[in-house]
Request: fold
Amino acid sequence: MSEAQRSNPVRILGAGLLGGAEYVGGMAILLARALQRAALGLFTSREKFSGASLAQQVVRLGVKSLPIVALVQVFIGVILALQMTPPLELYGQEKQISSIIGVAGFRMLGPIITAVVLSGFAGASIAAEIGTMVVAEEIEAMEAMAINPVRFLVVPRLLATVVATVLLSVVADLMIAFGGYLTARLVLGPAVYTDYWRLMREMLVYKDFYTGLIMAAVFGVLVSLIACHEGLKVRGGAEGVGRATTMTVVNSIVAIIVAACIFTVIFYVYEL
Amino acid sequence: MSGSGDNPAPQAAAVVVGRYGDPQPVVRVVNLVKRFGDRTILDGVNLEVYPAETMVIMGGSGCGKSTLLRHMIGSVWPDEGRVELFGQDTSQLDPWQLDEVRRRFGILFQSGALFNSMTVGDNVALPLREHTDLDDDTIEIMVRMKLELVGLRYAAGLMPAEISGGMKKRAGLARAIALDPEILFYDEPSAGLDPVTSAEIDQLMMDLAGKLGVASVVVTHEMDSAFRIADRMAMLEQGRMLKVAPRGEFEKLRDSEPTGDETADLMRQFLRGDPDGPITNRRMKGGYEQDILAAAEGRSSHSR
Reply:
């Protein structure tokens, strides 16, 4: 292929689209296989399902990331309160800061920021772990021992990440609200903190909470699926593992934001 | 007992008849062709392995022997031809049927391929936990028995990073025999080991074959090891099977004088480890000098 052909913008665009379609298709196949194996393990005796393995992954991916998720979300609440109060004061509505923090946190920021943190904490770890196993022939050894790598590695990590993301999102929602209250209490004054919790409760509806949890679950699927997919297709030794961990974080963040956009349209534009 | 054309069946009746008196091959490779891109890695390979025999597959680096092994264990699929395990064409099996077949063999990978997140004991226990309904106490007893067989009684609680290369091979072997397989595959079992440890691993392989009555397929280019353990041997060269015969025939070939027959001389050079011969001549004719000169001329024209 000549240099002119290689730099043809139509070719570059086509190659990018094909590569993206191949990537998404590969993940879809992996998800289908994981769900099949999970269903067989949970509802039949054809596959073994290890509750202990699932619990171990929930602890590793969820419990151990709790402190960092909580800390980050407190700071998100602080930032929201500090940034949003001055514009609201122009209209004498600084009291409403708690409503804004509640809606933004419960609907979007809690699940999104949790998923982004987990993409680095859990996603990169999963990709590195599985990628290293590929390089060390452990995956091949597993297959040769009639142990399906999707069932043994992907399913527990997928389920654990979904459980962890949902539970951590609940914690995140509370921590964002707490961060805003802390800021109101220490910086913004009684005009803001006096009716903070009451106004937040009045503004929030049940839909704000469950849509956030649905998004959290989907984000968990995306993060773990991308991490497992990147790990399983590692080639080229240590460099390949490094590339897989980087791409896991990058692709997870992009996928999370795109999914959040789609959910916003579904839940709050079309109001489904 | 008849065998395929240039794949003669073993002579000794004790080698031919398997554990249950079954004279059929446990592994059969039929006209196997495998290509990666434009390169043909395996070119019409035929091979049969019978119950309770040790078949050594040897050849130089890049001859296709590891690729052949990977076809046998179902990691790679042929472009043409077929691989049969226990009389079943592996490419025609669904994933669950293939897993049933895989439970009947064990494999020792070149690096051991232990799972680094588990202890040695957990590595050996894994096949038992995954494929049996045995309780934990019984599994622990079986793990200790397998580790005792390979001389690693006290290593159950150690992590793979804490043991030597030779111990990793032994641990990998203990895991490979966890389900009492009918075939054991070995991928370069002596690679990276000192001569004494290599001889110990060879002895272990022979002891296991004797005690368990398994068929063994060993891929190696360590000739000392090959002549120690083999019942029959197969030589691959550039993806083609040159000869399959009992060990004695290869010993005769190794000890004989060159005859001018290029194939025989090539095998003799490999068996003896001689620096001069058809293999070396072929590499020198492979255009290496021309490639170097061409590369130098290319750099000269760019710098003008």
Observations:
- Residues 103 and 130 of chain B are 10 Å apart (CA to CA).
- The domain at 13-303 of chain B is CATH 3.40.50.300 (Rossmann fold).
- The longest helix of chain B spans residues 195-212.
